């Protein structure tokens, strides 16, 4: 395919880089890729607030920029990785979309619903994914069987399963390796994510249609708000868990997850949880 796959030519690159606080080099190098991944991950929280408020998730680039760049909101995997892919494309990276089956430590076969990205640099493929939530990668990781990499206080690994012919991204937990998701080599495009997005944002069995899910990974702390339960997980796997009142949620989204709601959206969200 030729031309723009991810809409990079329509991206306000300066505004995006300002939003994520990136001031480094703009050449398409591994150092730049690492810097962009880290800055994006640190700045944009994972959230499904639009779904909770009964609104559609829009994936056109203008909508993504309006929400995540100008309104200083977050998004879930399709939103975050589509915006990120546009920026990578604009900067000259070779970006491919992939699709993954979520595992989260279980053996059951789930549908392909997660979006992630692959970047080729100097003959090496790298997985870069800023949209997986609390246990997301903090940096790109080489797509190589058996690789293990420390990122902040967390350890990630990639293995290739011969029986399924799938690649598996996993995280080291206190009791051993924990499979996060499995993915194949088939290239995915924005139109594929549009179909996946419809299912995930509307189906009653989706984990995102019945309650708020907000997450943020960090080098030393992973924060998650699911429903009204706030969980903070540290590298020793100790967890701080507490229930939050509905009126606390807008402020918590700002201070803990870097998500800014308008007054109207904050009121609507509190009302939704106050019923």
Quick description:
By secondary structure, the chain is an alpha+beta fold.
Order of strands, widest sheet = 5-4-3-2-9-8-7-6
> Which class do the helix and strand fractions yield?
alpha+beta
SSE series: HHEHHHEEEEEEEEHEEEEHH
Number of helices, counting only DSSP H or I runs of 4 residues or more: 8
Estimated radius of gyration: 18 Å
Largest sheet: 8 strands, antiparallel
Name the overall outline: globular
On the 0 to 100 scale, the average pLDDT is: 95
The portion of residues forming beta strands comes to 25-35%
Residue stretches low in confidence (pLDDT < 50, at least 5 long) are none
The termini sit apart by 50 Å
- Beta strand count: 13
Quaternary structure annotation: single chain
Helix content: 25-40%
List keywords for this structure.
31% helix
How would the blueprint of this fold be written?
Elements: H1 13-20, H2 30-43, E1 46-47, H3 49-52, H4 61-70, H5 77-90, E2 94-102, E3 112-121, E4 124-128, E5 141-142, E6 147-151, E7 154-161, E8 166-173, E9 176-183, H6 190-202, E10 213-216, E11 222-226, E12 229-233, E13 239-243, H7 249-257, H8 263-274
Antiparallel strand pairs: 1-10, 2-3, 2-9, 3-4, 4-5, 6-7, 7-8, 8-9, 10-11, 11-12, 12-13
């Amino acid at each position: 395919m030729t031309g723009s796959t991810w809409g990079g030519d329509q991206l306000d690159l300066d505004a995006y880089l300002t939003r994520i606080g990136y001031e480094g080099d703009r050449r398409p190098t591994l150092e730049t890729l690492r810097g962009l991944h880290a800055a994006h991950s640190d700045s944009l929280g994972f959230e499904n607030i639009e779904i909770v408020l009964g609104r559609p998730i829009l994936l056109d680039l203008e909508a993504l920029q309006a929400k995540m760049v100008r309104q200083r909101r977050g998004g879930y995997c399709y939103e975050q990785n589509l915006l990120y892919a546009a920026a990578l494309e604009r900067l000259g990276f070779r970006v491919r979309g992939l699709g993954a089956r979520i595992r989260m430590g279980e053996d059951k076969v789930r549908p392909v619903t997660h979006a992630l990205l692959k970047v080729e640099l100097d003959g090496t493929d790298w997985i870069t994914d800023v949209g997986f939530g609390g246990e997301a990668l903090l940096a790109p990781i080489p797509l190589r069987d058996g690789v293990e990499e420390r990122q902040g206080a967390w350890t990630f690994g990639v293995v290739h399963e011969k029986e399924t012919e799938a690649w598996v991204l996993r995280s080291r937990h206190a009791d051993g390796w924990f499979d996060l998701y499995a993915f194949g080599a088939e290239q995915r495009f924005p139109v594929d994510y549009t179909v996946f997005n419809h299912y995930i944002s509307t189906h009653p069995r989706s984990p995102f249609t019945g309650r708020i899910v907000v997450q943020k990974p960090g080098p030393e702390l992973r924060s998650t708000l699911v429903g009204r339960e706030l969980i903070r997980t540290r590298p020793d796997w100790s967890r701080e868990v507490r229930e939050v009142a509905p009126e606390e949620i807008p402020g918590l989204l700002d201070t803990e997850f870097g998500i800014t709601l308008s007054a109207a959206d904050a009121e609507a969200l509190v009302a939704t949880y106050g019923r």
